[in-house]
Amino acid sequence: MGRIVDVLLVIGIILLVLWLLGFATTYTFNGYIHVALVIAIICVGIWVINRLIGSRR
After folding, report:
1. Do 41 and 47 meet the contact criterion of CB atoms below 8 Å apart?
2. Rounded to two decimals, what is the model's pTM?
3. pLDDT tens per residue, range 14-27
4. b/e for 22-57, b at 16 or more Cβ within 10 A?
């Protein structure tokens, strides 16, 4: 389970970087680039929650 969560962190970081690049170029693909931001936040959030729960065990 830990490896899957680490993959989610990597995916989240990649999507966040892509969102920043899309935001900086002001070409937002009709709002789809913001979907990447939401997915990135969800992936990183799952990683953080798993780390917090895992540290208590």
Report:
1. no
2. 0.60
3. 888 877 777 677 66
4. beeeeeeeeeebeebbebbeebbeebeebeeeeeee
